[in-house]
Each structure stands twice: as structure tokens, then as C-alpha cells.
Amino acid sequence: MSLRSVTKNVPEEIREAVELLESKIMQDRALKGPDYKWTMSDFQIGAPLGRGKFGRVYLAREKNTHYMVAIKLLIKSELLKHSMQHQVIREIEIQTHLRHPNILPLLTYFQDEKRIYLVLEFAEGGELFKTLQNQPNQRFSEGTSAKFIDQVADAIDYCHRNRVIHRDIKPENLLLDARGNIKLADFGWSVHAPVNKRKTMCGTVDYLPPEMIENRSYNEKVDYWCVGVLCYELIVGKPPFETNSQQATFDRIKKVDIRYPQFMSSPARDLVSKLLRYNPDDRLPMTQVRVHPWIVSMKPKADL
């Protein structure tokens, strides 16, 4: 089971215990060897964490080390029925090689006759979307929003440096660890992009950039757009182009018809406006997002 250090992401009061557990896991991995064949008998399955179209996610514990993980169970017949098997293979290939503090690591994977199992780090804080829904007025403070956007921008910049486009950034695909830090997850729509230009439409309607809607070629700058939509949603509580119909949403996206509420600060509007640009080349790169005055000034004021 591939494992990177997680101690810097846990509270101080339990850090020593986690370090001891990590040491035990590393010893266990060494004993098992790199060719060890994992099966469900290695895990105790706990509570369900979520469900999707092709399977479910469960909390689980590795029996020997007692290390808590999340196991994503995918049903092969459903994947084949919807021609999604290649997408899962791509998800495994991509997520196996990504190692970043704000990206949920795929620890290992295995399969049996009927299912594919992805063993992921357990993010105790759950979905960012659910946390957002539980906030007063269903929105975060600008300080907390700035913290999250900074971490997402760092993770996306890392992905792009490794030639990966995520293509489905949204609150439902962002998890929180024990300290309230972002873990970018669900790489099902991600793609290696050495060619740098693609035409497949994917992602979530409210987050689609103009070039996807208009069936134009695109590159990693589709993710810049998604970060802009995310920033707006975290502060306001809903996506900027949301309407009652898909076509009306598409029309607003193509016009970049953004309506800012009065409570949204001018610096926050400035950042969003620099990300939500019709021309992809005009969008602010992730490295510049992280040093934007709004991020720098508001991030220390995060209350989550």
C-alpha cells in the first residue's frame, strides 16, 4: 500500500499516535512486499460514506495496522453498461502517480470477478459541499473561501505541471481532512494532456467553460475557469451562472454574465473576474491566483 506522510495534516494532540501508526504501516508494507495481492479480506468494512452511479464508498480499516481508509467499490457490470471502464482505468493511472498535500491519494487498488476496489486516504471532514450547505446562509466567510481557493489552486497547479487536467472541479469533488484542509478528489474526468488540446465535453453544467459549451478545443485553462466558479460559489452560496434551465445557464456562461451580490468584496470580485474570462488565454494562472491580494490578505482570517 503506497503511503506518504500525513502527519502534517493532523492535529498536534494526535500527531505522535499517527506517527507511530505510520511506522507500523511502513513495516507492514515492507513485510508484504510490492507484489502483495490485496483483497477485501484485508479490510474490515464500516459505515457507508457515499454512493454513486457505479458503486459505493465505505469507511474501512486495514486489519493488520488498523489504518482507516475509504474504499471506493465500483461494479464492473455497471461500468461496462455505460462504457465507463476506460475512464476508471484512466482515473487509476492518474491518481496513483499524484502526490500532493491537497490531493486525495489513491493508496492501492485491486479487483475481483464483479468489482474494482480503489483504496483511498480517508478524509475525515467529508465533502466540502456538505460543509458549505451547513454554513450560515450556506456560504463561507471570505477568509475561509480564500484559504480553500489557495489550496485548490496549489493542487491544480501541481496537476498541470504533471500534465493532468482535472476537468471536474466542484465542491462535491473536494474533501476536507481532520484539520479542515482541502483534498482534491474524484479524478474520473481527469486526463493526461501531452497534446494539450482536447474537445470532449465533461464536467458539471454550472462549471462548464465557454469553450466546452461551444465544442471548441481546450487545454488546462478549463480548470482556471472552474476555480473561478468555485470561488464565487464558496463566497455566495451558489454558482454564478445558475438558472432554472440548462440552455439559459449555457447562454449566461457564453456571455460571461456574472452578477455580484453587494456583500461580496471588491478584491474577491477582482479575482473571480480575472478567472472567468471568455478567452482562456486571458484567465489568471494558478500561480498568480495564490499571490492575488485577496488571497494574501484574507487567507489568515479563515475561520475553518
UniProtKB/TrEMBL annotation:
Query: Where does the record place it?
Result: Midbody
| Major site of localization recorded for this protein | other
The Gene Ontology biological process terms listed for this entry are:
chromatin organization; chromosome condensation; cytokinetic process; mitotic sister chromatid segregation
Domain Protein kinase: from-to ranges? 43-295
Q: Which UniProt keywords apply?
A: ATP-binding, Kinase, Nucleotide-binding, Serine/threonine-protein kinase, Transferase
Which PROSITE patterns does UniProt cross-reference here? PROTEIN_KINASE_ATP, PROTEIN_KINASE_DOM, PROTEIN_KINASE_ST
Enumerate the GO terms in the molecular function aspect: ATP binding; protein serine/threonine kinase activity
What is the active site of this protein?
168 (proton acceptor)
Q: GO CC annotation: what is one?
A: midbody
| Reaction it catalyzes | L-threonyl-[protein] + ATP = O-phospho-L-threonyl-[protein] + ADP + H(+); L-seryl-[protein] + ATP = O-phospho-L-seryl-[protein] + ADP + H(+)
InterPro entries linked: Aur-like (IPR030616), Kinase-like_dom_sf (IPR011009), Prot_kinase_dom (IPR000719), Protein_kinase_ATP_BS (IPR017441), Ser/Thr_kinase_AS (IPR008271)
- Which SUPFAM superfamilies is this protein grouped with? Protein kinase-like (PK-like)
Query: Where does this protein hold ATP?
Result: 53, 72, 121-123, 172-173, 186
Q: Does the keyword Plastid apply?
A: no
Which superkingdom, per the lineage? Eukaryota
Cross-link Glycyl lysine isopeptide (Lys-Gly) (interchain with G-Cter in SUMO2): which residues?
A: 170
Class of the enzyme per the UniProt entry, highest EC level: transferase
Q: What is its EC number?
A: 2.7.11.1
Tell me the Gene3D superfamilies matching this sequence: Phosphorylase Kinase, domain 1, Transferase(Phosphotransferase) domain 1
The record's comment on protein family reads: Belongs to the protein kinase superfamily. Ser/Thr protein kinase family. Aurora subfamily.
UniProt protein name: Aurora kinase
